[in-house]
Specification:
alpha+beta, Beta-clip-like, four-stranded mixed sheet, three-stranded antiparallel sheet, 12 strands, 10% strand, binds S-adenosylmethionine, zinc-finger, SET_dom, zinc
């Protein structure tokens, strides 16, 4: 089977320009501007012949100190996780109220149980960073524990009262959350914590991906989304990358035309479509990437003799998804973005980078607070909260989980003796990546994190890192190499 993508043949030279690595000067300028725009001090991005880009400190950091907070460039909440957590579709902060979070989760679980009449852990994602085999086991067990054997249903009407704010839980006001702002396109899929997040998402990608009634693309988009939810929700993230690039392209192009008209000169005629597209693509050009079907790790249950056919299947799946996306949002001026080569590289970028999105649930904090109360307040509160805990079961609180592209975190190289870690503190309530010094770091040192469990023996660490497509050459590995 040969998978031909006609756009790939037609736009070969544009695609090669998009995929050629940015020059050192472009890299330096891009990160200098990014760090200045974020008023992020104390760190720089440098390139090295062995490891590519890396983040360095230009002042000393103490153990436990915050090194940086990195807002994502694009991100998605996993499809299955949407059942458990209602979060802002732009910044991924929990929204509504503690009552709404709990009521909605119980309601969705009940719906799911009724619909599937049994266990269906779904296959929304086979992406290696999203759900490894142990997670899948947990999910299955959660589903088993989701049966009426371990969860005690609430009396009729309680779930509705939680969802429509008629039932107010004791002390829940101490855990107030931002209000729920629906998508302006009324798709019923995206919700926000504020109008500014709604507008920012609309401008960055949602205006092209919204499935609201008034969207001309609705049917085609729904088909694309259904396919992604049934196969791999990483395609939704790739669609966001393409949409955001398209929208940036249109904005840059209109600025360029305005300039031409204003100055009435030909000096801007050099701004042809390709140079504008390259500019719009710049943030993505910075990410380390390879084709998805070349870099995805062979799953444990696939024999190495089936390697080639596995990779062909992955490529065919990507083509299927791309064709659905193309039907929905194709733009002739940005045709190269709709080639399989570009689509494969975007997904490969997520495969190769360490890009989990996690936001802790306020529901956990709420129940811990109740548990810490003293007599008689605790006993009073628990008369109401205990039945709710019994209905939620052991996994009473689930974090928001997804995948994202963090422009600075994705520059962090791995070390098996890292000096920093991605770690959310109590105050980190949104989807930004947070990097903390794990020990003191001296001015000039490279910041490194561990992509895997650094306490594993040498060979196991190398095997885990093979999933990220490289053999580790950190000082600890060089020393331990047999
Ligand atoms: C998330 S990226 C880190 C940023 C990357 N250096 C860049 O230029 O964009 C991960 C890639 O960096 C390289 N890398 C990171 N840590 C490494 C290490 N300890 N040994 C060898 N290569 C490493 C590998 O090519 C890996 O696939």
């Amino acid at each position: 089977m040969d998978l031909i993508c006609p756009i790939g043949l037609r736009c070969a030279s544009e695609i090669s320009s998009l995929l050629s690595p940015p020059s050192p000067l472009q890299v330096q300028d891009y990160y200098h501007n990014l760090l200045s725009a974020r008023a992020c001090t104390g760190i720089t991005v440098k390139q090295d012949a062995n490891f590519g880009k890396g983040l360095y400190v230009d002042r000393d950091f103490k153990e436990g100190e915050l090194i940086l907070k990195d807002p994502m460039f694009v991100g998605i909440q996993h499809s299955l996780n949407k059942i458990d957590c209602l979060v802002c579709s732009f910044c991924f902060r929990f929204i509504g109220s503690i009552e709404l979070q709990i009521g909605r989760r119980l309601y969705m679980q009940q719906l799911r149980a009724n619909e599937s009449d049994g266990c269906d852990v779904g296959n929304s994602s086979k992406h290696s960073h999203e759900m490894d085999s142990s997670d899948e086991e947990e999910s299955t067990q959660e589903c088993i524990s989701g049966s009426s054997k371990t969860k005690v249903p609430l009396p009729d009407g309680v779930v509705e009262s939680l969802m429509n704010s008629q039932l107010v839980l004791p002390y829940s006001k101490k855990f107030s959350l931002p209000p729920v702002v629906p998508c302006p396109g009324r798709c019923g899929e995206a919700y926000y914590c504020s109008m500014s997040c709604a507008e920012a998402d609309w401008e960055s990608s949602h205006s092209l991906l919204c499935t609201g009634e008034s969207s001309a693309r609705r049917e085609a988009l729904l088909k694309f989304i259904k396919h992604a939810n049934e196969t791999n929700d990483i395609f939704l993230l790739a669609a966001k990358v393409i949409s955001s690039t398209l929208l940036r392209y249109r904005k840059l192009k209109s600025v360029s035309i305005e300039e031409q008209v204003k100055h009435d000169t030909s000096s801007f005629l050099n701004h042809n479509n390709l140079s504008i597209l390259l500019e719009a693509w710049r943030p993505i050009s910075m990410g380390h990437k390879r084709r998805w079907w070349d870099c995805i790790a062979l799953p444990d249950d696939v024999d190495s003799s089936d390697d080639a056919s596995f990779r062909l299947q992955i490529k065919a799946l990507a083509l299927e998804s791309l064709q659905l996306l193309k039907t929905a949002i194709f733009d002739k001026e940005c045709e190269p973005l709709f080639s399989l080569e570009i689509y494969g590289h975007i997904i490969g970028m997520f495969e190769l980078n360490n890009l989990d999105l996690v936001v802790a649930s306020p529901v956990e904090d709420y129940f811990l607070y109740i548990d810490d109360l003293t007599y008689p307040n605790k006993e009073e509160a628990e008369k109401i909260t205990q039945p709710i805990l019994d209905a939620l079961g052991e996994e009473y609180s689930i974090h928001c989980e997804g995948t994202a592209f963090f422009p600075l975190q994705s520059c962090l190289n791995h070390s098996c003796y890292p000096n920093a870690k991605a770690f959310k503190r109590d105050e980190d309530k949104d989807g930004q990546a947070t990097i903390i010094a794990q020990r003191s770091i001296c001015k000039g040192e490279e910041i490194t994190i561990s992509y895997v469990d650094e306490d594993l023996p040498f060979e196991e660490r190398q095997a885990s890192l093979a999933d990220y497509g490289f053999r580790c050459r950190c000082p600890k590995c060089i020393e331990e190499e047999p």
